[in-house]
Amino acid sequence: MLGAKYMPGVDSTPKTDLPVLLPVKESARRGQLFCDMGGRLFLDVKPQHLVWLMLVILLWSGAAQAASKYGVVWQFQTVFKWTPFILKGFALNILISIFAMVIGTVAGAALGLMQVSLLLPVRRGSWVFTQFFRNSPWLVLLFSVMLLFPFELDLGFAVIPVPDWTKAVVGFSLPIMANISEVVRGAVVSLPSGQWESAESLAFSRRQTMWMIILPQCVKRMIPPWINWYCILTMATPLCSIMGVEESVTHTVQALNAEGDKPELLPVFYGFLLFIHFVFTYPIARYSIRLEKMYAVKI
Amino acid sequence: MFKPVIKSALCAAVALGFATVSTTADAGNDRFKKVLERGKVVVGVKADYKPWGFRDSSGKLVGMEIDMAQDVADALGVKLELVPVQSSNRMQFLQQGKIDLMIATMSDRTDRRKIVGIVEPNYYTSGTNVLAKKGILKKWADLKGKPVCGKQGAFYNKIVAKRYGAKVIAFVNNAESKQALRDGKCVAWVYDDSSIGSDLASGEWSGFEMPLNSEDDNPWGLAVPVDEQNNIWGNFMAGMQYRWLTSGRLIELEKKWGIQPTAFLKMQKDKLTPARKHLK
Q1: Which residue from A46, A88, B233, B239 has the least number of CB within 10 angstroms?
Q2: Under CATH, domain B126-218 is a member of which superfamily?
């Protein structure tokens, strides 16, 4: 019944031979409810879902080595022992992803607007810049930045240390910048040209049209890809473990080593990594829907 | 498929790194002075090489080489800061000046001596051997054309490939290479003999053996920046190592960390300890 009032002819088969016109609003509401319900199956993370997930990991690690003398209980105790250490590493993953996203978004938005500039050199130049960073492997960009940047900056009066993770932030913000640039350009271009034309007929200047008419409508369109890129970025941050940044994967490897590099522990430790990444990333996808509704502008 | 990308990226980046580093490096005793001035010595150690350098569950770095680093700091009267390093980045860290000293299970090789200042006398040694299923291997030549697992950054990967024609598959860490050995993806796991010995002693590898004679018994070297090898910093560390070896401190640490006693440390102690007859 979905909590709604019972409506004859709507909630049950109409008791008449005459054609019945369903109320428009009601059918729309029901469609919406159906979507919400369907969506909830996939999007609402509830405590029991986490239990299910843990169970899958448990079965996975159990199946991986049924013949081993190191039981599942022992494996989980070991992971539990190292949880604070691995979470400390994961905090750095989050920190890197947030900073890289902020820098990448600000720089990418500027670059994206340059791509729709009326000046040809600006448009071409920003296009080349965007394409270069968009099509370079993330790992190569990361390596270049990490090895080219100094470990400390000597300003003459003070020496500022540059920790590895800040270099990783720069390394990750470059591809994010390029991709956000494409998101912004794509969103601006995707709006019907009528928006520009009617703005012009109302004597809006180009800058006014962009800021007051085009960009507000773009925000809704940009939110899903923007959140997508944030999720991709978060899941890519373990790349910097190759460069020795002390994040979650590096910490996991060190924990595995401290436990004697036992292959039995591989599934459960990496399963745990998967778990914490999922628990962090998934609610963000959920939140993006709310954001989209918030910034929805009806044309 | 992934590895060549990493390798080529590393090569390119390292080449660029050299270009920038070489202009800023300065000769003399600068590093040693800096250590005293800031009252802190920064030592690069392993964090994934039990029991030489690893983490306890609170995240603290512990191990035999960490104790050695503490000895150095105590002798200098400065604070100790530990920086975890990996085989692939330890020499770059020293070159860049990010660490003052490196004690990181590094084998003393000719090519490495060109990049970092390895100081004698060497403090430890290990040979190369393999862990394999019983009865498969009799001699090194049996590895020809067969897949062999190893750890990235180990110098003997190349030797095993070149000398015996083995196909080396190098993993980032040992848990994965051991799993690959169990899964039968490779016939053997090539590594330090002392480490394989302790694995076998743990009783978790029944059905496996260390069938070959250890090769390339290779001393380990700690390193200072290459410019300071023959200056105060290098000479100081030479003195530290001499004292560690003659006083039996390293034998004591070996025992503390449950490492199988090596003949090398005992031999070095006898060899380097001066006959003090004239003092009697």
Answers
A1: A46
A2: Periplasmic binding protein-like II (3.40.190.10)
